[in-house]
Amino acid sequence: MGKKGMFLSAVILGILLSLITPTEEAHFAWERLSFFNIAFGFLGCIVLIGLSKALGKLFIQKREDYYDR
Amino acid sequence: MIGSAIHPGLIFIVGGIILPFLRKRVFVQIWQLILPVIAFIQLFYLEEGVYGSFNFLGYELILGRVDRLSICFAYIFVIITLIGMIYSLHVEEWGQHSAAFLYAGSALGVVFAGDFFSLFACWELMAVSSTFLIMYGRGEKSLRAGFRYLMVHLFGGCALLAGIVIYVGESGSIVFSEMETGHLSTMLILLGFIVNGAVPPFHPWLPDAYPESSVTGGVFLTAFTTKSAVYVLLRGFPGAEILVWLGAFMALYGVIYAILENDLRRLLSYHIVSQVGFMVCGVGLGSELSMNGSAAHAISHILYKALLFMGAGAVIEATGRRKISELEGKGIYKELKGVFYLYMIGAFSISAVPLFNGFISKNMIVFASGELHRPAINTMLHLASVGTFLSLALKLPYGTWFGKRKEGGNRDEMVIKSLPFNMYLGMAIASFLCIFMGIYPKILYDLLPFPVSYRPYTPYNVLGMVQLLLYTAFAYFAFKDRLKNKAALNIDTDWFYRRGGKYFFDFCKILDGKRTELQGRIARLVENAVRFSINPIQTMRYLVGNKRIYVVPYSADRYRQPIGIGVMFFLIFICLISMIFIKRL
What we know:
The structure holds two protein chains of two kinds. Chain A is mainly alpha-helical. In chain A, 62% of the residues lie in helices and 3% in strands.
């Protein structure tokens, strides 16, 4: 099984898991949605990368010798 | 001394002072191992109660308040000292070991202190001794970072002292116990605590200084300062609402900076900020579960973060490089396979993968936030978990051990040193404890301050976490090209004292220039006034030419004119008068 196969099986595994997970313990209504966790993981990751990159471009990232000059 | 027992911190402090006199390397190494073991045995037989209280200037000092909260922190402090000492056995500089023992001893002193005075004394000793561990990184950068670190901690110490003085003045008691926020005294004490806890905006000392420390010193640094701050927050400010928001904000803040970071240990440092955020949030939530979670997470965190620092330190020690962009595509996996697997145990622990210790502790806090119906806080903490997994278990190891070789540059060859056995041993012990606690949570839960009814391994918790992390990984691999490791410097709030300070000085210089100019003008004015009073005639003549002259005092004889001039003026006057007179007629 190549890289793509592993990738795909992990993705399918995630979806299958989300269908069988019991959600009675969830504290909030949206956590009871069956795809909540996978959606949160996926979107959260993208949001964090996007947010930090945007902030980095905006003012955080400087040249490495910024403080030495 | 604590009555019949000996203060474990005292063992470390006295041991650290004796250490330089042992001369022979072997003796020092034996000493390094034996002290933590003695302290552990001492701790094991220590019963709850108050020890070592004595009267000092009319106040009662308590050096040893032993209860469930202090003892769980003390255990982990002693264990991590042992692990750190094993990791640093090969280091020949005795100064590092001595400083580390003083640091660990004073941290234990903080944990057992029952009054504000002894707390403050240990607090300051902790700041000073840890500075040495940073400066032992050697080189200009470490010295400067160490100095900045000390300055920030002295600021925090001053705030704490000011708060303590006002508090004692108001209440008349020096007992360190639960306080209410909102008074000047307690807010100053809280400020002192959160400076050490690296709560934004007072956090930049941590990612600034820790990466510059010596490879072995970093392991101790990750354990004591921030976690003793969590301890004092748990003791002094449980349920303070401000801590909930600060903690949740901090958890996300650290994660966002970590995603941008390129320096191995600085990336890990930002994750200390983030993880301490979980603990601070737990303290603020104030329920038994959340506070148990904070204590448990502090213990777990000390273990896995030390493991991660040891792993990153091992890479730095072996390759001499400290940035992901310098290691990317070098394929060091072949040579440093062992370090990789040990590091990954730490990375899975911090990401709260089931069966690792982060899972049983971090989720207590997240669960507590749900139980208390705090949706915003709950979501922020979840998001921080995603970011932790993203940068520590995916980005950092992928870039460091694997990664694509960049086209073009960066093809220089790299010599990889082999690492001493003791470094692997230190990491292995920490890894073992991370997994052991993850599999057998009872050992951790039995130590916690309150009885635990929380069950970590429910299908919902486990499966939910697995899904979350699987899809984070999915998103990472789908977008990893967007996340290039750029060699850059990320400015943080330390800008205010590193750059802002410089600008302030420049501004002061300009002001000073203006002041000098004004002073010069006033001085000349005064000088001229003096001259004028000495000799008005001479001054008036030369002032027009703007020359500096030697002033001769006025003398009537010197400026006496021939008598004819006087007669002439007189005649002109008479003439004018008579003309006017004639016209009137």
